[in-house]
Amino acid sequence: MKRSLAALAVLAAVSGCTAQAVDADGKAPPAVRTDGSTSPTPTTTAKDKDKDDKPAPAAAKVLWSSGDKGTDVREVQARLHQVAWLITAPTGTYDSATASAVKGFQGKRGLPQTGELDAVTWERLKKMTHKPAQWELYPYGGQPAAQPDPRCMTGRVLCVSKTSRTLRWMIDGKTVSTMDVRFGSQYTPTREGVFSVYFKSRYHVSTIYHTSMPYAMFFSGGQAVHFSPDFAARGYYGASHGCVNVRDEGKIAALFAQVRTGDKVVVYW
After folding, report:
1. What is the DSSP letter of 150?
2. Which pLDDT belongs to residue 34?
3. Of 119-128, 137-146, 202-211, 234-243, which range is least confident?
4. Residue range 249-261: average pLDDT?
5. Which residues make beta-bridge pairs with 203?
């Protein structure tokens, strides 16, 4: 019997196999280490395997971030302004104020507060806002001037575009200067058509509204091109009573000095 057991031990050593004993429940006992201690037999479950193999969720694609510029950024800023996260007017530059507004918007809606405008944040913002009108994108002016109306291409003309909200001072088809302008509200609209300057008044005061109208150049009834301190302060968040308001006092002062009675005024879309 002893010889048989010895033979079995030799055979196991030569073949490299080991016999694994099991306990009363059919489980393998703890493995015995060389230092005499024991450790449980490691096992891998299907659940653990799935957890290991599952890829981490991809971060949302960043569309705009600090330093970016352009009309797309201007739209982002206008939409943030609509939901009162950005108080300042759109500038077209993704600055620190914009990043702070985006971060606040993200945090309020449980999104990662990165301050970067990613695809997920952009979709959420679009659902809560409307497509900004042109005046919302340029509430304080700065919009590129529209192409001159054909009626502006001859003579001395105050060429006023309602589309771009700009005034071109033109002489014989050439633009001498441009400036931002605003118009009347829906209840007091600025008239459209071809007119001429019939009266100039440097220090004019409205007899109807009793408000100052510096550098006034009247072209249709009580409607005139003139400087507006309110336009300079509030931009397109306000409106005139029908006049063409100019926000840059320096530019209209220079314009007032050049315009003559009888010069043409064209107001068009």
Report:
1. G
2. 45
3. 137-146
4. 98
5. 214
Return the amino acid letter for 101: A
- From the list 134, 140, 138, 62, the residue with the least C-alpha distance to 102 is 62
How far from 69 is each of 14, 72, 84, 117, 137, CA to CA, in Å? 76, 8, 21, 13, 13
195-232 residues labelled b (16+ CB within 10 A) or e (exposed): bebeebeeebeeeeeeeebbbbbbbbeebbbbbbebbb
Instruction: Provide the β-strand partners of residue 93.
Output: 69
Strand positions, DSSP E, the chain = 31-32, 38-39, 62-64, 117-118, 156-161, 166-171, 174-182, 193-196, 199-205, 212-220, 223-227, 244-246, 264-268
Least Cα distance to 140 among 237, 208, 267, 210 occurs for: 237
Q: What is the sign, positive or negative, of the torsion defined by CA atoms of 243, 244, 245, 246? A: negative
In 3-state terms the chain splits into helix, strand, coil percentages (rounded to 5) of 30, 25, 45
In the block, residue with structure tokens 């600055």: 95
pLDDT tens track for 181-203: 999 999 999 999 999 999 999 99
Give φ, ψ of 226 to 5 degrees: -160, 165
Mean pLDDT of the chain: 85
